Amino acid sequence: MTTIGNVHLPVRRLGPLAAILVRVAVAALCVLGVTVLVYTEREGYRDVCREIDRCAGAEAEISFLDALYYSTVSLSTTGYGDITPITPRARLVNTFVITPVRVLFLIVLVGTTVEVLTQRSRDEYRTRRWRERVRDHTIVVGFGVKGRSALEAILDQGTAANEIVVVTNKPTEVEEATAFGVLTISGDATREEVLRSAKVDTAAKVVIATDRDDTTVLVALTVRRLNPTATVVASARESQNISLIKSSGVGIVIPTAESAGRMLGLSLTSPRAGQLVEDLLEPQQGLEIVERDITPAELGLSPESLLSQGDMVLGVVRDGELYRFDERRATVLQRGDRIVAIRPTMNGA
Fold first, then answer.
1. Could you read off the pLDDT of 93-118 as tens digits, one per residue?
2. Residue (of 199, 198, 241) closest to 218 by Cα position
3. CATH match for 287-344 among 1.20.1300.10, 3.40.50.300, 3.30.70.1450, 2.70.70.10
4. What is the pLDDT of residues 52-94, one digit of tens each?
5. How far apart are CA 311 and CA 175, in angstroms?
6. Of 78, 213, 217, 294, which residue is least crowded by CB atoms under 10 Å?
7. Which whole-number Å values give the CA distances from 285 to 221, 275, 281, 349, in the listed order?
8. Cβ(222)–Cβ(195) below 8 Å
C-alpha cells in the first residue's frame, strides 16, 4: 500500500561526519562542565582512597584530575563510589545539575535512536502547527521544469518560502523542492486527500504544472471542488486542450509548447524584442513585470506619470477588472487600484 499525502518540512541536514563531530563536542562539553563544577565544589567531595592516604600524611583534597575522573565515571553511570559528595550542597548539585547532564550525556551516546524519535515527534508537532496556522498560501502542483520555474518566479516576486507548498509524487522532486525551503507534500495531486494535506481549502493561489493535460484537468476539478475561490493557473501541453482545462475551473492557461515556439520565432525575426521578453521572463537579467497596490502618494496621478519612478504601467486593475494602457479607461489612479507594471529589478538597477 502506497503512503500518500506525506508532509516534508524543510530542514537543515548534517552529513554523517558532521553529526558525529557535533555529538562528540556535546559529550566533551558535558564532561568538561561537570569537571569544572566538581572541582569548584571539591571541598564537598570525599575520596575514599585519599582518606586512607591521609593517615600516612598525604594530601586529601580533590584534584582537577580527580574531578575529571569523577565526571567521566559519573556521566557514564559507571560509578565506582570511590569519590562521593558528602555535604548537602554537593549532593544538591549532583541531584539537580549533574543528574540532568548525565541524562543528556546518555542521550548523546544513543543519539541515533533518540534522534529518530525526537525528529519524528518534532515533525509531527511542526506539521500539526502548520495545518492550524496556514492560510492564503500558494500551492504548486508538479515540480518538473515548469513547476520549478514557477516556484522561482513566485519567490522572486517576494512571496516567502513558508507561504508556499509543493505537491509532487516523485521522490527526487521532493528533495529538490525542500531544498528551496518550502513545505512539500508527497503524493498524487489527483487524489483529494493529498490536496487536503496541502490545505487547498484555505489556499489563495494554485499553480498546476503537471506533465499531462488530463492530469491537469483532474487536479483542477478537485481543486475547484475543495476551494471555489482560489486563483488557479495551469500549463497546457497542447493548445487544443486549453478550453477543456479552462472549463475545469482554471482562470489562466499557458500553452507551454506554443509559447516556447513563439519566443523562438520572435527571437529570430525581432532579436531585440525577443531579448526584452527574455528579460521579463528572467528577472535576473534586469527587468521584471509585477502587480502591486498603489501607494498613498500615487493617488490622483496618471499611470503615465509613474514612469519617472521607474514603473512602466501596462494596466490598471480596478474592482477586479483589468484596464490596459491602450484602453484609456483609467486615466487617474483611485483608492483600491492595483497596477501591472514593468520595472527594473534590484539586480538590474
1. 888 998 888 888 877 776 655 665 66
2. 241
3. 3.30.70.1450
4. 555 444 445 788 888 898 888 888 877 777 888 888 888 888 8
5. 38
6. 78
7. 37, 10, 9, 10
8. yes
Crossing angle (nearest 10°) for helices 99-109 and 64-75: 60
Angle between helices 16-40 and 99-109 (to 10 degrees): 160
Give me the residue label for grid cell 567521566: 72
Determine contact, residues 187/5, Cβ cutoff 8 Å: yes
Task: Domain 135-259: give its CATH architecture.
Answer: 3-Layer(aba) Sandwich (3.40)
Contacts of 97 (CB under 8 A, 6+ apart): 37
| Structure letter (DSSP) for residue 87 | S
* 32, three cell numbers: 568538561
Residue 235 · residue 208 · CB < 8 Å? yes
Phi-psi label, residue 336: left if phi above 0, alpha if psi -120 to 50, beta otherwise? left
